[in-house]
């Protein structure tokens, strides 16, 4: 009798047909280890990582599982040694051509084994002794300037809705756009950003408080002050009526009500996915952030300042951005111009209604 070998993801793999007895032996051999992998992935999912990120972790761990199954030596958790890690590295060198792909799979295994160390399941992480493949950076692919304008126009119009929830969601999304395109924030930065981290004055700024370095601030476009005050008033009124209290700047909601304060990285990516489908845009949080970096270069910001705002080390190279800067010219002046134009167009209408 034959059974289908089920890989870590629980998906059948037609290339692995083995006899039932052998299948049971493999389950006994790796079952506990695979269960630990499932717990690790479940933890990532609960932390709110994006769907694609969790999927990539699963794929990378599945690659390690295939390596383990191909190994003829007995396996238990005590076999997670530097020698085994090196053999896996050799396995990747044979199977993969891309250095970045090899690097990612080793990095995933390192993070998973760190998880096991943290759970006191193993004593040390052998992958930390490996020399990883060199990292090759992809060419930046920023959101086209015209697409950013299209999205901003859409949000300005949505903000004028008579429906209170539609208006509030549009204002929240304006804040998201301004924090990413205006200040280069990542979805992980936005996820639990607090209102108190926003400073409104002649030059609005957002303060980030990374775990491994001192807090620092990033300037925001001047229009952010007006948008923030309008959003703050709408959000405060909605929270009072709904009996809600939370300190986060953003919130998770459905079309009818706020569900909770804060907005997970996955939730943010879903918002951008909706924009892509509805407005037919080339838009992701990453591509919008890359547009911000090109904007800083166009504003002649110094390299060390840009790196600080990006949250990267001084050794990080901006060469790829500089090489493509002449083809990617961005400005944030249109944000205020379009906002004021819409306001001026509405003023005569309001005055006429009053008469």
Walk me through the structure.
β1 and β2 (12-19) form a beta hairpin. The chain folds into two domains: 28-119, DNA polymerase, domain 1 (Orthogonal Bundle), CATH 1.10.150; 145-345, hpI Integrase, Chain A, CATH 1.10.443. The strands form three sheets. Strands 3-4-5 form a three-stranded antiparallel β-sheet, covered by helices on one side. It has a two-stranded antiparallel ribbon with strand order 1-2. Helices cover 57% and strands 8% of the residues. The chain has helices spanning 20-46, 51-70, 82-95, 99-118, 145-158, 164-183, 187-191, 224-242, 265-279, 285-298, 303-310, 319-323, 333-354, and strands spanning 2-6, 12-19, 198-199, 205-208, 216-219, 251-253, 258-261. It is globular, with a radius of gyration of 25 Å. It starts with a strand and ends with a helix. α1 (20-46) runs antiparallel to α2. The chain has 355 residues and is mainly α. It is built from 13 helices and seven strands.
Tally of domains: 2
- The level of helicity is 55-70%
Order of helices and strands: EEHHHHHHHEEEHEEHHHHH
Unreliable segments of 5+ consecutive residues? 1-28
CATH top level assignment of the largest domain: Mainly Alpha
Q: Quote the distance from N terminus to C terminus.
A: 86 Å
Radius of gyration: 25 Å
Q: How many β strands by DSSP?
A: 7
Main beta sheet, described?
3 strands, antiparallel
The assembly state of the depicted protein chains is single chain
What's the total helix number? Answer: 13
Q: Which shape, going by the Cα principal axes? A: globular
CATH-level-4 superfamily name of the largest domain: Intergrase catalytic core
Strand order of the largest sheet: 3-4-5
Structural class: mainly alpha
* CATH architectural name of the largest domain: Orthogonal Bundle
Mean pLDDT: 85
Q: Strand content of the residues, in percent?
A: 5-15%
CATH-defined fold name of the largest domain: hpI Integrase, Chain A
């Amino acid at each position: 009798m034959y059974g289908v070998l089920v890989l870590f993801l629980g998906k059948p793999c037609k290339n692995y047909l083995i006899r039932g007895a052998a299948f049971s032996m493999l389950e006994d051999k790796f079952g506990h280890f695979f269960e630990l992998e499932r717990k690790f992935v479940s933890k990532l999912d609960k932390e709110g990582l994006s769907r694609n990120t969790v999927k990539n972790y699963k794929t990378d761990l599945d690659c390690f599982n295939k390596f383990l199954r191909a190994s003829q030596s007995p396996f238990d958790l005590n076999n997670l040694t530097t020698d085994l890690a090196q053999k896996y590295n050799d396995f990747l060198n044979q199977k993969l051509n891309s250095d970045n792909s090899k690097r990612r799979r080793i990095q995933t295994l390192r993070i998973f084994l760190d998880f096991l160390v943290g759970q006191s399941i193993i004593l040390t992480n052998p992958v930390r002794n490996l020399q990883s493949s060199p990292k090759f950076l992809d060419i930046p692919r920023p959101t086209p300037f015209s697409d950013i304008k299209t999205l901003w126009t859409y949000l300005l119009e949505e903000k004028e809705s008579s429906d209170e929830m539609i208006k509030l969601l549009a204002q929240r999304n304006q804040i998201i756009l301004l924090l990413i395109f205006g200040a280069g924030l990542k979805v992980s930065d936005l996820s639990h950003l607090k209102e108190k981290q926003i400073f409104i004055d002649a030059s609005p700024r957002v303060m980030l408080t990374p775990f491994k370095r001192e807090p620092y601030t990033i300037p925001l476009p001047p229009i952010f002050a007006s948008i923030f005050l309008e959003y703050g008033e709408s959000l405060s009124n909605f929270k009072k009526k709904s009996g809600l209290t939370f300190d986060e700047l953003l919130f998770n909601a459905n079309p009818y009500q706020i569900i909770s304060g804060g907005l997970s990285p996955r939730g943010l990516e879903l918002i951008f996915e909706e924009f892509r489908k509805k407005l037919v845009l080339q838009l992701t949080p990453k591509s919008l952030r890359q547009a911000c970096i090109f904007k800083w270069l166009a504003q002649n910001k110094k390299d060390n300042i840009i790196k600080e705002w990006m949250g990267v080390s001084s050794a990080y190279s901006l060469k790829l951005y500089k090489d493509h800067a002449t083809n990617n010219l961005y400005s944030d002046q249109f944000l205020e111009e379009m906002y004021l134009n819409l306001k001026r167009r509405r003023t005569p209408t309001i005055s006429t209604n009053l008469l």
